[in-house]
Structures are given as C-alpha cells and as structure tokens.
Amino acid sequence: MSGVDRVGLQPLARLGARTAGSSGAAGFTPPAEQLVDAARSPATAAPVALESLLALQQVDGAPARDREAYRRGQALLAALGRLQRRLLADGGTQAALQDIQALAADVPAAADPVLAAAVDQVVLRARIELARAGVTGG
Nearest CA to 91 among 99, 82, 100, 101? Predict the structure, then answer.
C-alpha cells in the first residue's frame, strides 16, 4: 500500500513520472489532455463550497430568529397595552406586570438590525414600566 505525499495539484512532470513508473495492471494512466486540464483548473473549489455552506447555515437561522423576536415584541406590546388599560380603569395591574416581567426576561436577538432596534425599544419601555411599578427583575 502506498502513502499520499501531499494534497492538491502536483506539477505535470511529477504526475507523468509517477504514472510512467507504475505497472500497467496496478495503475491507471489518464489521457494527456485530462492531465493538462487538471493542472490548469483552480484548486479553490472546495473552500468556496465550504464558505457557501456556512453562509447558507447562517442565513437559514436568521428568519427563525426574526420571527421569534417579532412575536416576543408583539407580546410585550400587547402586555403593555393591557397594563395601560388597567391603569386607566384603576384595576389590578399585578397580572399585567407579571406578564411583562416574564416576557422581558429573555428576549431573543433578531438578525435584522431594524427589527432588533425596534424590539430593544419595546423591551426598554417594558423595563421602565416595571421599574415605575417597583417590580424587581426582568
């Protein structure tokens, strides 16, 4: 069994020397045109494909993160609206404050910078309301 010297394209002269010394039954000698084409072709196809796959994986996660951040922002806005209505009606605000505290505790980061900024503003407003009510945490 023979070992591999190096990975990548080798000079044409080295390939020819290696195939010339091999026996006819044990080796395969490609036509000269294929050797010349192989020597001229760029060896960067694998790294480009790897970078593309990594970029595709990052893009695939972005819409899911954006959806989750959007849903959490909408839920926070709804909870803030309930708190406002309860404050105006002089009703009990404890349930609305607990909802806001739970929603503002762990907000996922959005991939879209505009959405991330908007969700951050909603979370800031929620934390201000919690601080105004004297609720700790969140």
Answer: 82
